[in-house]
Design brief:
2 copies of one chain form a homodimer. With 218 residues, the first copy, chain A, is mostly helical. Helix content of chain A is 70%, strand content 0%. In chain A, helix 5 crosses helix 11 and helix 8 crosses helix 9. The structure holds a DNA duplex (30 and 30 nucleotides).
Chain lengths: 218, 218
DNA sequence: CAGTATTACATAACGGCGATATGTTTTAAG
DNA sequence: CTTAAAACATATCGCCGTTATGTAATACTG
């Protein structure tokens, strides 16, 4: 399928490899294929955005609920970052706006992935019910998690975070800070974040052994 | 100067207006001008990045130190956002990575603007000395402020934040959350953030009356 | 001053891009 | 079988960044 080829090209060679002629060559067809099936490059980019959010959703729904909702929340953050690092160019298309020259996304395209926030909203509600977070707006908390971690991931993908304040260090600090600012106690937050790190390590080891990674890239 | 024309085109018409032919037309010269002066579009983009960070620095150094360092810190956040909203396309070039198709920035280009973080680091140190922040790494705090607010601004510029959780609301919440997670008490943080909002309002009214805005855009 | 080397500029061309128009082949419906 | 629709291939248009080549202006040097 053309979408699969496009996803592979995007992951392996980056945005500049996504051209009608390159796709035609790769699919053994003509440049018209993109237009008959997607109405142009914009339509194909839209499909890529949907695919990107589907992969994100797959990562987020993969975190299991435990009796430590704050650790679950931290794990959601780790899953978000993990997905972005596994599909960096796809993530750039999802949020980069005009990452591909001149291909502006529709308002509907931009808001399409909003459903993935539901995972975070539900988890925030559980944190409220457990008395770990101040009882405030769960959606607002979700938006704060989203924008803060999105910002860190964006800077990381752009190679703006370097030693000694590399992305790993900033991310761990960011996770704890987010839990604290939502109302959790500092030591409790640090403990839950540490627990989430162990759960994440176990997760990637298990799926790494099964070779289940969604995408690899250089 | 070619850089001024480029900055104007970028601000008024967006990234796709930045082409050698368009610049040649606008400057009444040929396409070679970009190559003799900047060695190509990449060089011109680099100059734009430098200009963008210079404007950011101008905004950041414009916030005055008061006896409420947390309010000063919040005002730095507001200044950062204000600069990004005043120069949205320029901000996209600074951090969008490949906002312009295929023009990858050098490692030196990406790290060039790092000096602007110094304003935040100094302010964080003052927050420590005032006993408002937990005495930890000032640079780490600065990085957290940076990535969190950068993430929010990025989502805002990309029109990802819509009512009822619009950018204004998320930003105010983000500011308070950042101060709280750095160690400030919730009510103290909220009070300083509110104070910073008033100072910001006075600021834009004063400079607005003098017509001193750095750039306007549709 | 003359002579020269460097820089700036204009023109034309190359390859690649998204997009369109047109005609042809394949597919599916009646 | 007939025909309407979908998919495809080819050629072309107007962009793009970039390069090569030749020319005019400038600055340096003896």
């Amino acid at each position: 399928m053309l979408v699969d080829i496009a996803a592979r090209l995007l992951a392996e060679e980056g945005p500049q490899a996504l051209s009608t002629r390159r796709l035609a060559t790769e699919a053994d067809s003509s440049t018209m294929a993109v237009y008959t099936h997607f109405g142009g490059m914009s339509g194909l980019v839209r499909e890529m955005v949907h695919e990107g959010f589907a992969r994100l959703q797959r990562h987020l729904t993969h975190v299991r609920q435990t009796d430590d909702p704050v650790a679950d929340m931290a794990l959601l953050g780790r899953a978000y970052r993990h997905n972005a690092l596994a599909n960096p160019h796809l993530y750039a298309v999802m949020f980069g706006g005009s990452s591909l020259a001149g291909f502006s996304l529709t308002e509907e395209d931009r808001q399409h992935g909003r459903y993935t926030l539901g995972n975070v909203v539900k988890c925030a509600t559980r944190c409220f019910e457990a008395g770990r977070f101040r009882a405030e707006d769960a959606e607002l908390v979700a938006h704060q998690m989203w924008s803060a971690i999105h910002g860190l991931v964006t800077l990381e993908l752009g190679d703006y975070l370097i030693a000694p304040y590399d992305a790993d260090r900033c991310f761990e600090a960011q996770l704890t800070a987010l839990m604290v600012s939502s109302g959790d106690a500092l030591d409790a937050a640090a403990s839950s974040v540490a627990l989430s790190r162990e759960r994440m390590r176990d997760e990637v080891e298990a799926s790494g052994a099964a070779g289940e990674e969604p995408a690899a890239e250089g």
